[in-house]
Design goal:
The chain has helices spanning about 25-35, 55-70, 85-95, 115-130, 140, 150-155, 170-180, 195-200, 215-225, 230-240, 240-245, 255-260, 280-290, and strands spanning about 5-10, 40-45, 75-80, 100-105, 135, 160-165, 185-190, 205. The protein is an alpha/beta fold. The protein has one domain (about 5-230): Alpha-Beta Barrel (TIM Barrel), CATH 3.20.20. The protein has an eight-stranded parallel β-sheet with strand order 7-6-5-4-3-2-1-8. α4 links the parallel β4 and β5. α6 packs parallel to α7, α9 (about 215-225) runs antiparallel to α10 (about 230-240) and α11 packs antiparallel against α13.
């Protein structure tokens, strides 16, 4: 099993300036901040990176920037997926993945494929990918949920090494832990459930919260992985009241607000998302202050 992907992967935000262009100096501050906070690997152009509103060239530029500004030479996971299988396969052919360690490929959205369609889609991707592939199940955005039996079948492919699951269904999390091969890497996509998920066999998280709170979230995750569940739970509870506000106005609006409060980058997002409302800013600031996360 590839232990490079144990622990915390941070789903990096893409900082924008007030003109909604990519703010590369802020992106460098973010990379330095999360690396200094102890995260285990970097995830470029996942949902939190606003991949749906970055251009093809911007995606490539962001990847190159991370490769050149990776202070601890952490493993890099790159988001490469979509709902047009042929286009995804062509993107693999057109993308220089030198220096990337794995691919994170999202469940196709909008066109609502069957489970057989999901198996065919991800098999096609795994067949052409020069890198190991993580599946990404996020039914809150894709509408379709990858069923346990679908994941188990895909786990037999030698180039599919794990899954990030954000289905928010603990019964499904338990079933996956029970049914998947032991060398298949189960990664949480649900920051609020990391500690209990690790207790049943999951190996870590690809985290939104770790953008702004890398030290705390990495400590929590490794406490859990090393069996110190009381210590892990104590940190997990500090984020309990933050989870709702973080996503109240869509991701990454909330976490970018936290990053702005901490002085790492601005909170600008690209339309159709808009910056956090005044009420949400107040709420997040209150939670951060109360939990000692300023």
């Amino acid at each position: 099993m590839d232990t490079r992907f144990y622990g915390v992967g941070v789903a990096l935000v893409t900082p924008f300036d007030i003109n909604h262009d990519i703010d590369y100096p802020a992106f460098k501050r973010l990379l330095d901040f999360v690396s200094g906070g102890g995260v285990n690997y970097l995830v470029v152009q996942g949902t939190t990176g606003e991949t749906s509103t970055t251009t093809t060239q911007e995606k490539l530029d962001l990847l190159k920037f991370v490769q050149k500004n990776n202070p601890k030479k952490l493993p890099i996971v790159y988001g490469l997926g979509g709902n047009n299988t042929r286009a995804v396969l062509e993107t693999f052919q057109q993308t220089d993945l030198t220096g990337v360690d794995a691919i994170l490929s999202v469940c196709p959205y909008y066109n609502k494929p069957s489970q057989r369609g999901l198996i065919a889609h991800f098999t096609a991707i795994a067949d052409v990918s020069p890198l190991p592939v993580f599946l990404y199940n996020v039914p809150g955005r894709s509408v379709v949920n990858m069923k346990v039996e679908t994941v188990v079948e895909l786990a037999q492919h030698p180039n599919i090494i794990g899954i990030k699951d954000a289905c928010a269904n603990f019964d499904q999390y338990m079933a996956l832990a029970d049914a998947c091969p032991k060398d298949f890497i189960l990664v949480s996509g649900d920051d609020n459930h990391v500690t209990p998920m690790i207790s049943i066999g999951w190996k870590g998280v690809i985290s939104v919260i770790a953008n702004a709170f890398p030290k705390e979230f990495t400590e929590m995750t490794w406490h859990a992985l090393e069996g110190r569940m009381d210590e892990a739970a104590a940190i997990q509870y500090r984020f309990l009241d933050m989870d709702g506000p973080l996503y109240a106005e869509s991701n990454p609006v909330g976490i970018k607000t936290c990053l702005e409060i901490k002085g790492i980058c601005g909170s600008d997002v690209r339309l159709p998302l808009v910056k956090a409302s005044d009420g949400l800013v107040v709420k997040l600031r209150e939670v951060m202050a109360r939990e000692g996360l300023m």
